[in-house]
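#lab-general

N.A. 3:47 PM
ok so I finally got the sequence cleaned up, no stray characters, all 163 residues accounted for. can someone with queue access submit it? mine expired

B.Y. 3:52 PM
send it over

N.A. 3:53 PM
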Amino acid sequence: MGKLTVRALRAVLVVVLAGTVFVQAGMVWALVGGSDPEDGSLPLTPLRVITILGMVSVQVALVCVWRLVTMVRRGTVFSHAAFRYVDGVIGAIVAAALVWFAVTAINAPGQRDDPGVTVIMGGVGMAILGVALIVLVLRMLLAQAVARDVEATQMQAELDEVI
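B.Y. 4:20 PM
back already:
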Protein backbone atom coordinates (compact mmCIF):
# COMPACT_ATOMS: atom_id res chain seq x y z
CA MET A 1 0.00 0.00 0.00
CA GLY A 2 1.35 3.37 -0.95
CA LYS A 3 1.72 6.25 1.48
CA LEU A 4 -0.87 8.33 -0.37
CA THR A 5 -3.41 5.51 -0.21
CA VAL A 6 -2.83 5.00 3.51
CA ARG A 7 -3.12 8.72 4.22
CA ALA A 8 -6.31 9.02 2.17
CA LEU A 9 -7.86 6.01 3.90
CA ARG A 10 -6.92 7.30 7.32
CA ALA A 11 -8.36 10.72 6.48
CA VAL A 12 -11.64 9.08 5.50
CA LEU A 13 -11.61 6.99 8.68
CA VAL A 14 -11.05 10.09 10.83
CA VAL A 15 -13.86 12.01 9.11
CA VAL A 16 -16.29 9.10 9.48
CA LEU A 17 -15.28 8.59 13.11
CA ALA A 18 -15.82 12.28 13.84
CA GLY A 19 -19.20 12.09 12.12
CA THR A 20 -20.31 9.10 14.19
CA VAL A 21 -19.23 10.81 17.41
CA PHE A 22 -21.18 13.93 16.34
CA VAL A 23 -24.30 11.85 15.65
CA GLN A 24 -23.93 10.03 18.98
CA ALA A 25 -23.59 13.30 20.84
CA GLY A 26 -26.70 14.63 19.11
CA MET A 27 -28.67 11.51 20.00
CA VAL A 28 -27.56 11.65 23.65
CA TRP A 29 -28.46 15.36 23.76
CA ALA A 30 -31.90 14.59 22.32
CA LEU A 31 -32.42 11.74 24.79
CA VAL A 32 -31.52 13.94 27.73
CA GLY A 33 -33.60 16.83 26.38
CA GLY A 34 -36.63 14.61 25.79
CA SER A 35 -37.77 16.45 22.67
CA ASP A 36 -40.11 13.76 21.32
CA PRO A 37 -43.25 14.90 19.44
CA GLU A 38 -46.28 15.54 21.62
CA ASP A 39 -48.52 13.11 19.76
CA GLY A 40 -46.14 10.17 20.17
CA SER A 41 -46.36 9.36 16.45
CA LEU A 42 -42.72 8.34 16.30
CA PRO A 43 -40.95 6.05 18.77
CA LEU A 44 -37.93 8.34 18.86
CA THR A 45 -36.38 7.16 22.13
CA PRO A 46 -35.81 3.57 20.93
CA LEU A 47 -34.64 4.84 17.56
CA ARG A 48 -32.15 7.18 19.21
CA VAL A 49 -30.77 4.40 21.40
CA ILE A 50 -30.52 2.15 18.35
CA THR A 51 -28.73 4.93 16.45
CA ILE A 52 -26.19 5.27 19.27
CA LEU A 53 -25.58 1.51 19.21
CA GLY A 54 -25.31 1.54 15.43
CA MET A 55 -22.68 4.26 15.61
CA VAL A 56 -20.73 2.14 18.12
CA SER A 57 -20.66 -0.73 15.63
CA VAL A 58 -19.37 1.63 12.93
CA GLN A 59 -16.71 2.96 15.31
CA VAL A 60 -15.54 -0.56 16.17
CA ALA A 61 -15.18 -1.34 12.47
CA LEU A 62 -13.27 1.91 11.89
CA VAL A 63 -10.78 1.20 14.68
CA CYS A 64 -10.25 -2.35 13.42
CA VAL A 65 -9.67 -1.14 9.86
CA TRP A 66 -7.22 1.48 11.17
CA ARG A 67 -5.27 -1.24 12.98
CA LEU A 68 -5.27 -3.46 9.87
CA VAL A 69 -3.97 -0.59 7.74
CA THR A 70 -1.21 -0.08 10.29
CA MET A 71 -0.34 -3.76 10.04
CA VAL A 72 -0.28 -3.53 6.24
CA ARG A 73 2.13 -0.57 6.38
CA ARG A 74 4.41 -2.49 8.76
CA GLY A 75 4.21 -5.67 6.72
CA THR A 76 2.75 -7.68 9.61
CA VAL A 77 -0.77 -8.21 8.30
CA PHE A 78 -0.03 -11.85 7.45
CA SER A 79 0.09 -12.87 11.09
CA HIS A 80 -2.28 -14.33 13.62
CA ALA A 81 -2.68 -10.90 15.27
CA ALA A 82 -4.62 -9.68 12.21
CA PHE A 83 -7.43 -12.15 12.87
CA ARG A 84 -8.51 -10.23 15.97
CA TYR A 85 -9.17 -7.12 13.91
CA VAL A 86 -10.82 -8.95 11.02
CA ASP A 87 -13.07 -10.69 13.55
CA GLY A 88 -13.83 -7.26 15.01
CA VAL A 89 -14.91 -5.99 11.58
CA ILE A 90 -17.10 -9.05 11.05
CA GLY A 91 -18.68 -8.64 14.49
CA ALA A 92 -19.30 -4.94 13.89
CA ILE A 93 -20.99 -5.64 10.55
CA VAL A 94 -23.21 -8.32 12.10
CA ALA A 95 -24.06 -5.92 14.93
CA ALA A 96 -24.93 -3.24 12.36
CA ALA A 97 -27.24 -5.71 10.61
CA LEU A 98 -28.95 -6.54 13.89
CA VAL A 99 -29.36 -2.84 14.63
CA TRP A 100 -30.87 -2.38 11.17
CA PHE A 101 -33.29 -5.25 11.76
CA ALA A 102 -34.31 -3.56 15.03
CA VAL A 103 -35.01 -0.33 13.14
CA THR A 104 -37.02 -2.34 10.63
CA ALA A 105 -39.06 -3.94 13.41
CA ILE A 106 -39.76 -0.57 15.04
CA ASN A 107 -40.70 0.96 11.69
CA ALA A 108 -42.87 -1.97 10.52
CA PRO A 109 -46.09 -1.11 12.42
CA GLY A 110 -46.17 2.30 10.76
CA GLN A 111 -45.90 0.67 7.34
CA ARG A 112 -49.04 -1.47 7.44
CA ASP A 113 -50.48 0.35 4.44
CA ASP A 114 -47.27 -0.12 2.46
CA PRO A 115 -45.47 -3.29 3.62
CA GLY A 116 -43.06 -3.03 0.71
CA VAL A 117 -40.99 -0.57 2.72
CA THR A 118 -40.53 -3.16 5.45
CA VAL A 119 -39.59 -5.80 2.89
CA ILE A 120 -37.03 -3.46 1.33
CA MET A 121 -35.61 -2.62 4.75
CA GLY A 122 -35.35 -6.35 5.49
CA GLY A 123 -33.52 -6.78 2.19
CA VAL A 124 -31.07 -4.06 3.18
CA GLY A 125 -30.45 -5.94 6.44
CA MET A 126 -29.77 -9.11 4.47
CA ALA A 127 -27.36 -7.18 2.24
CA ILE A 128 -25.50 -5.99 5.34
CA LEU A 129 -25.21 -9.59 6.49
CA GLY A 130 -23.94 -10.42 3.00
CA VAL A 131 -21.10 -7.94 3.51
CA ALA A 132 -20.22 -9.76 6.74
CA LEU A 133 -20.08 -13.01 4.79
CA ILE A 134 -17.79 -11.44 2.20
CA VAL A 135 -15.44 -10.29 4.96
CA LEU A 136 -15.60 -13.81 6.42
CA VAL A 137 -14.46 -15.21 3.07
CA LEU A 138 -11.63 -12.67 3.05
CA ARG A 139 -10.73 -13.84 6.56
CA MET A 140 -10.45 -17.39 5.21
CA LEU A 141 -8.13 -16.12 2.47
CA LEU A 142 -6.05 -14.37 5.13
CA ALA A 143 -5.86 -17.65 7.06
CA GLN A 144 -4.56 -19.42 3.97
CA ALA A 145 -2.01 -16.68 3.36
CA VAL A 146 -0.81 -16.84 6.97
CA ALA A 147 -0.49 -20.63 6.72
CA ARG A 148 1.53 -20.31 3.50
CA ASP A 149 3.72 -17.65 5.08
CA VAL A 150 4.44 -19.91 8.07
CA GLU A 151 5.15 -22.81 5.72
CA ALA A 152 7.49 -20.68 3.60
CA THR A 153 9.35 -19.50 6.72
CA GLN A 154 9.83 -23.10 7.86
CA MET A 155 11.03 -24.15 4.42
CA GLN A 156 13.46 -21.22 4.33
CA ALA A 157 14.81 -22.23 7.74
CA GLU A 158 15.32 -25.82 6.55
CA LEU A 159 17.02 -24.58 3.38
CA ASP A 160 19.30 -22.34 5.44
CA GLU A 161 20.32 -25.39 7.54
CA VAL A 162 21.16 -27.41 4.45
CA ILE A 163 23.26 -24.64 2.97
